[in-house]
Amino acid sequence: MTHNGRIGMAIAMRCGVLRTLMAFALVAVASAAMQGLRAQEKRGSDPQHQLPLTWDRWLDHDEISERLRLMERTWPDLLTLQSAGKSYGGRDMWVMTINNPRTGDEADKAAMYIEANVHGNEIQGAEVVLYSIWYLMENYGRIDEITRLVDQRVFYLVPNVNPDGRDYFLDEAGSGARTGHVPVDSDGDGVADEDGPDDLNGNGIIEQIRKYVPGEGTHRISHDDPRIMERVFPGEKGDWVLLGSEGLDNDGDGRVNEDPIGGYDPNRNYASDWQPDYIQGGSMDYPFELPEARALNDFMMARPNIAGMQSYHNSGGMILRGPGADWQGTYPASDIRVYDELGENGERILPYYNYLIIWRGLYTVHGGSIDWTNDGLGIVSFSNELWNGGQYFNSPLLQEQQRDPDSPISGQRSRFFFDDFLEFGDQYLEWAPFDHPIYGAVEMGGWKKLSGRVNPRFMSMELFHRNMAFTLYHADQMPLMTIGDATVERVGGNLFRVRVDITNERLIPTITERGRQNTVVRPDLLTVDGNVEIVAAGWVRDKFRPGPTDMIDQEELDRILVRSGHPGRTTRTIEYLVRGSGSMTVRYSAVKGGTVSTTVALR
Amino acid sequence: MRSAGTCGPRAAVGVIALTLTSVAVLPAQTAAYLDFNGLTRELRSLAGGSNLARLRSLGTSHEGRDVWLVEIGNTAGAPIETRPGLLVVGNLEGDHLVGSALALETIRYLVTTDDEGVQQVLAEQVVYVVPRLNPDGAEAMFNAVRYDRTRNGRAFDDDNDGRVDEDPPEDLNGDGIITVMRVPDPSGSYMVHPDDARLMKKADPAERESGAYTLHWEGRDSDGDGYINEDGAGGVDLNRNFQHAYPYWKRDAGPHMVSEPESRALMDFVIGHRNIGAILTFGHSDNLVTAPDSRGELADASVLDLSAFADASNADIFDQGVFRTAQQGGGFGGFFFGGGGGGLPRLRGAQPGRDNDPDSGRRPATTVNRADLKYFEAVSEAYREITGIEKVGINREPEGAFFQYGYYQFGVPSFSTQGWGLPQAPAEETEEEAEQEEQPPAQAQAERPQGPPRSGQGPPRGGQQPGRGEDAQGVDAAILEAMDAAGIDAFVEWNPYAHPDLGDVEIGGFGPYVVTNPPAQQLPELGRKHGEFVARLATMLPRVTIADTEVTNHGGGVFTVRVEIENTGFFPTSLQHGVVSQSVQPTMVQIQVSPDAVLTGDAKTSMVQKLDGSGSRHEFSWVIQARQGSSVEIRVRSQKGGTATTTLTLR
Questions:
Q1: Which residues of A touch B341 (CB under 8 A)?
Q2: Where in chain B are all domains bearing CATH 2.60.40.10?
Q3: Both A319 and A372 in a single domain?
Q4: HEC string of A402-429?
Q5: Does the N terminus or the C terminus of chain A have fewer Cβ atoms within 10 A?
């Protein structure tokens, strides 16, 4: 507590200094926007929205598409909407690009790739993505830090990686919506997807089935709440058996619901540590077999400037990083330092969220998307698990009360309490009799699909904003190269010593150590143009003290390869010994950190 | 580097095939290696001239050539897609043209032979042949300058310097082939082999040897980066691009598994044809001449020293440009700065009380399941008997190879052969092999250097150590001896050459294609033998039939229906590994009555995990309620063993 408070104060104090510095930097970039800002400030601090949108319902694919088009029409200078391809069901894989062309081409700026809803039922991430686009646009020119971020960076935003699954979850019965819709023969009869659950009573919900079997069952009704079904202790008998999800034997093979739609895990189909199905269930037959994963990977591979990645999932309240399996060993120490700083600040931005390594904190995942982007594309990647059950009763006092077994908000009762008093019973369907064609007289009922993993609608705004804020912080820490003025010193004749400071202003290096090891990121290039012959080049160890330089042992000193990239928040000084005249341009180019140059006259 | 025979998009292929015909109508068999147009012409002619074969394209290569598939089977029988299938794939490595030649001859044999056994195979089974998976790589054999090119047509920045294919090998001495340069250098690591002046060895200081040469592939440092021939044409070796033991992040393996249009086309075909019950590939690795041993491991891999040494000359390229500067910390900008650290220790990547077991979770199999060995042994025996091949040349480590996918992930008997053999080696070489086998297998596997691609004109991805391939010393001499014995002129003598940058050097070494491909005149006979072997392999596929049925009338509309199914093939309906890996579905038997008409006994839909071959049977019985005199259908579906149906009358 004390510790966090101190850090927070330190941040606040330094931020003041930062703002002052930032003001100078931003004048040129955002002068047009500033005028709009002044006009708004007259009306006080509360902004007038350019595009008033509401954020209290879950949108299906058509509604998401419409909202994306609307935003693109509203902010055409900064937004570009494109489809990266089609899902199996023929729905567009929308990508919204945020880029200010006046501050440079897309490819010359570090880009943040943000995706959501890889699993069809994990829906709220799509709204986080939509909200992020909207928030950045509404506040561009109004909040300095947002203006700067939009001007410095590129964002690729994919609200809906699994549009088939999302629509199935929202618009149809929605049971088992995690999968995508590529057909899979789950029961080995040579036919795919022929026996899924059925909405027998036509209420739009796939319910659970229970049957009353006095003295022969596995479950009983809880004394705490008649809606709670408890498993009986070993050796005891209950009065109820649970018979699974609402459905029939559609294909008449004597089995119920044994081959539902799809039947795989869309987030196990990526190409790092991919494992066959018997090791990693649901991985399909080869990486990027799924049209959705393939389309988006093609998109990413064509944009090597992507330096940061976030994949929103649900639930549990986690900020996850790889590796997904311990077999992969640990990340290189320098990469871990970067992840730790981002993740630990993320925990402060996102109460109830823990920064975790996937295999240690969650479970083993082979072939997940962020393992691929980290290992195969050299991108610093997180996956947030949106929504933590602790947020239902989010005060220390209530959470203490939840540990008291007699409290009405302890154990399973807490969920009913919340539904009764906060959602007015909207998320629970009471058990009701039903005459089932196979099981006979049964009862059907239970929790509805939106409860549990999806946050209550009224709590959306905070979830959207805090997750966006973490991801924008992550985006802000992508590498950002700057170059200082060159100093020239005549050594004798037409021989000059030229020194240039090269700086990465942010936390993330231009090339992660894992990216270098796997040779998946083009090295940074330090090049020289001009009428000069480079006699020698080297890194200055300490420019304030005399001492040696680390000579660069490469054949082409006008095109130095920097395979290890430029570390975060670090200035290096390059020293050239050149013979020549006229001007000399030194350029540093990092695919994930931008290209910067300085020109100096030799005299 | 685009090859001479480059084709346009697929639509243009037919036109080219018709207009560029330069060879007259070919004899019954082809004693020549064929370029893409020549192969296409042959395939069209074979498929067009037979109602047993159908030609189609699985997709196109990077350079727009078709990946051809020929489906062979008599369509008069059961629907093709339900029959037990055998898949044959050749020329995955670009330089292995013998593979496509044998695949072509196999097609020819199957559609022209009057052997009754083969005709029965084609009536009940189906054989799919992809003769040349890597048409772009193969085309390089017909270039003006030739070198072993295993890789496909993907443009790839081998040395990751931001420039693509900028430093290919050059034919300096104008002999039309790329060989090796040996450069006198007192600090070099290599010396002339004391036993054979044609060969080089790595000097061993412990034996008081000292190196006198450095070795490079023939050419110049075209881009002036200090490395010679580190980035030539081509990108991915397709037989390293598949999912088992995939060599991550290595040169030639591609950006990821199944990254290439050619490998993806093959995978999509395979997973769309789950009736495929066995796979045969022609490639650089072998598990047919030498079957997996009792531990389920394949024979040791080997590489040519001379190629490994030349490759190693660029091995340190990824160490260049690695600069270590400690991160300076402190703040420059952003929302947070100087915000590092300060997190509670418990938050560093672990959840209290929820630390998962690091060893949890299964690992994929890496050796052939003991229960499956006998099938590999039997097929190996048949292969050696039919082809007479007893010894192979260079045997490549099959990391990412398609046939390994076929067994380890597709779950079927899956084989690879180089397709030709060498005369038996002299005794001393055998001793060496025996010594190698004495090493503990796991250790040997772990320590064995990753075989550099024989064809490579550049460094492996991921920065290999120089000097790798040391263990393999001695391979060159054995190969050369066997080649000499077989009367194959495999070696280009060293000849002096005045190199513009390096001064006086010598150029020589193994000729391209010679070590991996037999002389073309051997192709017709090898082809016929492999056709016979493929036919034999097809007869081994599982074949599920309904062997026996019985109806017992209990009166009152109650009957017992008993059915025995039998696998008349040699292979089981699923290998044990097919069961373990859940990649082969159980065989399903279903009685076509309403589920509630089954009173007792087996479930309406019943499964048997696997049914061994050679006449093994399995019995099912149902007690059902039905109308006297009505009929009931029994359906059997085996994913790899075909389908069967019978109708019984209840009386």
A1: 340-341, 344
A2: 544-649
A3: yes
A4: HCCCCCCCCCCHHHHHHHHHCCCCCCEE
A5: N
Q: Are B379 and B417 in contact (CB under 8 A)?
A: no
Scanning A476-495 for CB atoms below 8 A from B yields 476-477, 480
The DSSP-derived string for B397-421 is --TT-HHHHHHHTT-S-EEEE-S--
Same domain for A108 and A201: no
Nearest residue on chain A to B241, judged by CA atoms? A286
For residue A570, the chain B residues in CB contact (below 8 A) are 325-328
- Domains held by chain A: number: 4
* Domain annotation covers residue A125: yes
Residue A31 falls inside a structural domain: yes
Whether A437 and A528 map to the same domain: the answer is no
Using a CB-CB cut-off of 8 Å, the residues of chain B touching A554 are 225-226, 320-321
Q: What is the pLDDT of residue A22?
A: 42
Residue type, B289: V
Q: What is the pLDDT of residues B74-86, one digit of tens each?
A: 999 899 999 999 9
pTM of the model: 0.90
Q: Which residue has the higher pLDDT, A222 or A5?
A: A222
Contact A341 B341 (CB under 8 A): yes
In this structure, what CATH number is given to the domain that contains residue A511?
2.60.40.1510
Tell the CATH topology of B10-142+247-300+365-425+523-539: Aminopeptidase (3.40.630)
Are A174 and A197 in contact by the 8 Å Cβ rule? The answer is no
CATH number assigned to the domain covering B544-649: 2.60.40.10
Q: Print burial letters for A5-21: b (CB count within 10 Å at least 16), e (below 16).
A: eebeeebeeebeebeee
The rounded distance, in Å, linking the Cα atoms of B569 and B587 is: 14
The answer to whether A285 contacts B409, with C-beta atoms less than 8 Å apart, is yes
- Do A563 and B320 make contact, defined as CB atoms within 8 angstroms? yes
Residues A501 and A592 in one domain: yes
d(CA A602, CA B310): 44
What tokens appear for B590 in the block? Answer: 């279903």
Write out residues 548-567 of A within 8 Å (CB-CB) of B.
550, 553-556, 560-564, 567
CA distance B437 to B448: 12
Predicted confidence at residue B435, as pLDDT, reads 46
Distance, CA of A285 to CA of B271 (rounded, Å): 7
What local confidence, expressed as pLDDT, does residue A105 receive? 96
Beta strand A559-562 with A524-540: parallel, antiparallel or unpaired? antiparallel
Domain annotation covers residue A395? no
Instruction: Please judge whether A189 and B332 are an interchain contact, meaning their C-beta atoms are less than 8 angstroms apart.
Output: no
Closest C-alpha to B604, from B569, B572, B561, B570: B561
Last residue of a domain, one of A32, A48, A64: A48
Q: How far apart are CA A376 and CA B255, in angstroms?
A: 8
Is B321–A561 a contact, with Cβ atoms under 8 angstroms apart? yes
* Banded model confidence at residue B352, pLDDT cuts 50, 70, 90: very low
Q: A341: which chain B residues are within 8 Å (Cβ-Cβ)?
A: 339-341
Token representation of residue B325: 């500067």
Q: Is residue A176 part of a domain?
A: no
- CA of B629 vs chain A CAs: smallest distance (Å): 23
Q: Are residues A68 and A146 in the same domain?
A: yes
Chain A segment 281-320 residues within 8 A of B by beta carbon are 285-289, 301
Assess whether A328 and A471 both reside in one domain: yes
What proportions of chain B, in percent to the nearest 5, are helix, strand and coil?
Answer: 25, 20, 50
Separation between Cα atoms, residue B596 and residue B615, nearest integer Å = 33
Of A272, A344, A571, the CB nearest to B328: A571
Among candidates A189, A363, A571 on the partner chain, residue whose Cβ is nearest the Cβ of B637: A189
Range of the domain at A428: 186-260+422-447
CB atoms B349 and A321 under 8 Å = yes
